[in-house]
Amino acid sequence: MENKSDILIVGSGVAGLSLALQLAKIQPDLTVTILAKSTLQQCNTNYAQGGIATVTNTKTDSFRAHIEDTIASGDGLSNYGTVKLIVETAPARIHELEEMGMPFSRNDDGSFHLGLEGGHSQPRVVHANDNTGEHLLATLIATVKKQSNIHCLENKIVFHLLQDSSKRVVGVKYFDTETKKFTHYLAKITILATGGSGQVYQNTTNPEVATGDGITLAKEVGAKTHFLNFFQFHPTVLQEHSGNRSLLLTEAIRGFGGYIVNKKGNRFLFQYDKRGELATRDIVSIAIFDELKNSGEDCVFLDCRHLDTKTFKNHFPFICKKLEEKGYDITQQQIPIVPAAHYQCGGISVDQAGRTTIENLYAIGECSETGLHGKNRLASNSLLEGLVFGHEAAQRITSEINSIEITRETIYAETIYSNENDAIYSEISATVKRVMTQNATIASTTSEINQAKLKLIGLQQEFEILDFPNHFSEAKFHVKSLLTNALEIVTQKLLYNRKNYLKEELFN
Prior knowledge:
Elements: E1 2-10, H1 14-26, E2 32-35, E3 52-53, H2 63-73, H3 80-100, E4 114-115, E5 125-126, H4 132-144, E6 150-153, E7 156-163, E8 169-176, E9 182-192, H5 213-220, E10 225-226, E11 231-238, H6 252-255, E12 259-261, H7 281-295, E13 300-303, H8 309-315, H9 317-325, E14 335-344, E15 347-349, E16 361-363, E17 368-369, H10 382-400, E18 416-417, H11 422-439, H12 446-466, E19 471-472, H13 474-495
Parallel strand pairs: 1-2, 1-9, 2-6, 9-16, 15-17, 18-19
Antiparallel strand pairs: 3-5, 4-5, 7-8, 8-9, 10-15, 11-14, 12-13, 13-14
């Protein structure tokens, strides 16, 4: 089966949906197709709590301050031009969301209520209560569904990028999880907006779909990747002993005045950074890992009992409700927390328009490495990045799309559905997660990371013995993506050299 579209977007989060809307605005005669791995709502955007970082008042804040905070958070490894672009165009992107009806939280005078989060020198995070991502995604989906030229297809697992004889990407091959059929989908431009790979770890804030498929697809066609060694852990995640995705407790709680304490009640973070709870996520996460290692305990605690109960519940209704469902009252109890894998700071190497190193292939959102984050993402810069790069990619794509012809790939290889090895694939997936959690976190030593790589190579060899090239199952593709991403993460951790891995060198 074969279909065609001018533009094909793989992924339905903030980046993919924003791009689709920008394309519709600039050139409404283009056909745009969005392929979602699950439902449109099942993506990391839906679970983002904090908000969107942006300068809204130049009397109390400035673009320069936001730029400096971003670069400092990334340990100086961000690309200045990219940071400047994103920070300075942020207000325009927020205004577009307002026009779509995004329900931002407001003060009594109608101005934005601004949150303060770790690494920010000023309160500058616009938000919709404490579940901004859910409101943002609903707003974008509602707007997308009003566009006659944007078509959304759910439950499609894209597992192969099609190329012509010149190695240009000309579309994708996907598996429909409902009909169990395979489809070739051709396009002039293909965009990967597939999100991150947080599922390579046992403790993660990421949904089940976040297996790093974009990295896997891009590497198979020869695209470059960058900074995958920098995986951000969120320091305040509810300690849970069951389930596949842990409840994140937004950074804004610490900006609001929440404490992180050990079992003895000590605010130990000041031993690591003078900012204490308002230090950046990497510093706070490493401090917690060290505290747990030294104390032998399995968690630390988020303490908000000293804060005004009514005001707290008004600011964080979503968190309070979710914790209550799990048997906790955050205004009366200390909440057990651990760091968990949260955000992939690196990804597929792209320029400031989202172009990869492969012709007619773009990447935006968490699967890409734009130069914004460097070593560590500044809180609430990720939704912003998706919005801005959706806009920038659309500008570039519409400037060249009319000169591109939809071409066929050279050979269509038949794919056979086979799930006979799924039990073994599931075992390998579980082992990958365990190896990464034990030996390849933000606080792991070089010796531990070496151990992780050796174990992963063994798992890769086990997978290859089972692998029949033209056979496909969800479990097989799942473990393939996990292994690809895990090996890239540990390999780039071991090879990382600050001087040699600067962003500017990749496109020289």
